[in-house]
Amino acid sequence: MKYIAEFRDGDLARRIAAQIAREADRGRLYNLMEFCGGHTHAISRYGIADLLPPAVRMIHGPGCPVCVLPIGRVDLAIRLALDQGVILCTYGDCLRVPASNRLSLLKAKAQGGDIRMVYTPADALKTAQAEPDRQVVFFAIGFETTTPPTALVIREAARLGLTNFTVLCNHVLTPAAITNILESPEVRELGTLPLDGFIGPAHVSTIIGSQPYEFFAEEYRKPVVIAGFEPLDVMQAILMLVRQINEGRAEVENEFTRAVTREGNLKAQALVSDVFELRRSFEWRGLGEVPYSALRIRDAYADFDAERRFRLQTKPVADNKACECGAILRGVKQPRDCKVFGTVCTPENPIGSCMVSSEGACAAYYSYGRFKDVALVAQAATQASFLDPAQAAAAVAANNGRNRQEMP
Amino acid sequence: MCLALPVLVVEKVGDTSAIVDLGGIRKEISLALVDGVEVGDYVILHVGYALSRLDPVEAERTLALFAQAAQFTAPESA
Fold it and tell me: Which residue in B has a C-alpha nearest to residue A14's C-alpha?
């Protein structure tokens, strides 16, 4: 397909890789964070890590909305479906996120909850029109890319005067998360997370533009290169970052000029600010409470806010103790540092959120065989022994079977 | 979640919708977030909404940039 195939040319990718290797200074490390899960996925799927010289290290960021969604918010959606009998519509990605009491939206559906997967929020609105006697809640998640469509359906619901449609809003903001990482003790004080530059989001930036990243370049002296999600886009962005670092520059550069401008999509921005306002604080899985990092529905549209209609209160819930999603989302650990990665935690049976969405670092590593450093079989069995032994053994057996298939 | 794809607009449906072609699949999408989209344009499609119009000139420029990086490398790797 046009604008896809030509950005996946393997021969060109190898040549750009050779150029990166030639320009990268062997006497230093280039610690580059790709903020977005879309880039994490591309890096795993196309084997980009293997094309890079040892001096270039990719660190996976928290830009995966499913991964950063805290358990307490999923619990709210589950309770709405099971206790209040609403029709709960949401994107497919959300359905398998582990929540409290070993539930997920998918398991709640199996228990009789009316939970429906939608491709677009417009379908949730249609459901509300088709079922006027039922309350329909759209469980909205996503970064700036996904927020404008939610704003549009809220406005449309207001125009139609619907009284049975609300949105449970979990929309979060990219710049706030980047600031949180740059201000984290691992980066600022301990130095355990060296960061030399960022690959900036592709589709988020089509909406917000390249301008919001200028602050990070100026204030924190970190170069940012906005890149498309195709493998050649990522390779080119890495080359551009290596050049900036070599030359001591910290600027915002845009590799994804075919879709991103400095201003972004002003129409979408106006729409979002008409419907939403900043939350004072919002909990992120991994990052904890992050000030001004999420959106809530404005008073003018209060009738369409599920939190207000159903008087919802979010209760924070701790992650599974064995799960390292938090540290992985902060860039401090890699999936293979997690004891349950690939043993009991697999895409079929995710323990942590990073194994759920294909953009999660763990799911990306698992799906594309990037777990070569994990000692499998016996060690995996011991590590998993704190769980039910039969379950652990079954998980290890299933996992080994899969490894044999995927890693000839 | 931020998955979005470049699709070709093949037909306008009223002012705010269009039929797009996605590798042979035709689908109606909303143009409510992007003004001035015409038949023949490529747009980036996300959850049923066009987010931005693809700039063909900039796309060519980026491809040229790849070729340039590759060109320098060709003699050494050959």
Answer: B70
CB contact residues (below 8 A), chain B span 11-70, against chain A: 22-23, 30, 32-35, 42, 44, 46-49, 51-56, 58-59, 61-63, 65-67, 69-70
Domains of chain B, with CATH numbers? 5-77 (2.30.30.140)
Contact residues on chain B for A37, CB-CB shorter than 8 A: 1-2
Domains and CATH numbers, chain A: 5-63+175-254 (3.40.50.11750), 67-174+264-309 (3.40.50.11740), 325-406 (no CATH)
> Torsion-angle region of residue A195: left (phi > 0), alpha (psi -120 to 50) or beta?
beta
pTM: 0.90
The dihedral sign for the CA sequence A115, A278, A182, A184 = negative
Chain A partners within 8 Å of B69 (Cβ) = 15-16, 19, 236, 239
pLDDT tens for A191-209 read: 889 999 999 999 999 999 9
Q: Is the pLDDT of residue A382 over 70?
A: no
Pick from A358, A368, A313, A333: which is nearest to A67 by CA? A358
| Number of Cβ atoms within 10 Å of the Cβ of A116 | 17
